[in-house]
């Protein structure tokens, strides 16, 4: 059975201008936030960038802050999942093995979400959304530090460096990729993940067989 719209009813809301769905608007917003800074970017700037009117953008999102929240979630969600999995009960895997795995996975997440991770690393807690993101980052640091401590307790890592410092240094190495990595460059994600994991855990010194 088919139905028709009642006479005089309001037209159904469309999906917006072709080519500019919510995902496309978010990508453009992240690029602008990274280029100009979040605080210095207005919805008018975003509308100009996309060649849309502000009402057309508000068809998809309610505010600039909503765009920031979605971007930071994009940067954090997969990393949070990776750290949660690594710090959970994983039968048959040592803490050291799980630590290596989560560092490697962190590289893969950053490469896949480089624009939003770049934005995440620039937030300073100037709004509720930013404070929530910083709190999530601290949680990740704490969980990774606990995993480092477990690996130390196993005897797999030296005990002369505080686990919290090791956590910061490991994430610092991974996060530094946002400053120079390019998908069009010489290093593919797998090579990059291998290199950082080897350097972080095995060092650069050549050891005799």
UniProtKB/TrEMBL annotation:
Residue ranges for the DNA-binding region feature of this UniProt entry: 42-61
Keywords: DNA-binding, Transcription, Transcription regulation
GO MF term list: DNA-binding transcription factor activity; transcription cis-regulatory region binding
Record has Transcription as a keyword: yes
Matches recorded under Gene3D superfamilies: Homeodomain-like, Tetracycline Repressor, domain 2
PROSITE patterns: HTH_TETR_1, HTH_TETR_2
Protein name, UniProt field: TetR/AcrR family transcriptional regulator
Species annotation: Nonomuraea zeae
Lineage: Bacteria, Bacillati, Actinomycetota, Actinomycetes, Streptosporangiales
